[in-house]
């Protein structure tokens, strides 16, 4: 299971990737946290981990904040998840080799392995940029529907 920390970190990166100047300008992490409903006391930990992982740059001071340190197209969701949660696995036997002595002939092991491989492939193929674009599309659709509703009401 993906932890909230990894999910929150993905939201921070996608938010920065969705901003035109996300790799050039610093943004207050507090502003991003508020926009996405992230716990304010957790944000410094997330930023620190993302910085250590080489995904963010941070600066202090009045013009400080956070910005991307990498091309969001080259960062997969898997990378971010594993930065926070370690290896992805549906079962302990898939994460820890030798955990289960039955894995060579266990039919359930083969099913878990097949499902995990598909999930990992999807997470590797989805970049932070892809997620930022999906957020932008969803926001545009939400705004369009809101505008249509307002026009219908006002007639």
Write the layout of secondary structure elements.
Elements: H1 4-18, H2 29-36, H3 43-52, E1 56-59, E2 65-68, H4 77-85, H5 92-95, H6 107-125, H7 128-154
Antiparallel strand pairs: 1-2
Helix pairs in contact: 1-2, 1-4, 1-7
Question: Can you walk through the features of this model?
Answer:
Strands 1-2 form a two-stranded antiparallel ribbon. It is 59% helix and 5% strand. With 155 residues, the protein is mainly α. The chain is globular and about 65 Å long. It has helices at residues 4-18, 29-36, 43-52, 77-85, 92-95, 107-125, 128-154, and strands at residues 56-59, 65-68. The longest helix has 27 residues, at 128-154. The protein folds into two domains: 4-75 and 128-154, Orthogonal Bundle (Arc Repressor Mutant, subunit A), CATH 1.10.10.10; 88-126. The protein contains seven helices and two strands; from the N terminus they run αααββαααα.
């Amino acid at each position: 299971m993906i932890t909230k920390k990894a999910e929150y970190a993905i939201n921070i990166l996608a938010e920065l990737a969705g901003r035109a100047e996300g790799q050039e300008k610093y943004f207050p992490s507090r502003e991003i946290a508020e926009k996405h409903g992230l716990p304010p006391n957790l944000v410094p930990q997330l930023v620190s981990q993302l910085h250590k992982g080489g995904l963010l740059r941070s600066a202090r001071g009045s013009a400080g904040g956070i910005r991307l340190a990498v091309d969001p197209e080259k960062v997969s969701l898997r990378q971010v998840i594993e930065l926070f949660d370690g290896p992805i696995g549906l079962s302990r036997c898939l994460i820890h080799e030798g955990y289960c002595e039955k894995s060579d002939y266990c039919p359930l092991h083969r099913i878990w392995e097949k499902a995990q491989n598909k999930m990992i492939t999807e997470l590797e193929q989805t970049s932070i940029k892809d997620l930022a674009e999906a957020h932008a599309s969803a926001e545009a659709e939400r705004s369009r529907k809101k505008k249509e509703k307002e026009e219908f009401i006002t007639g």
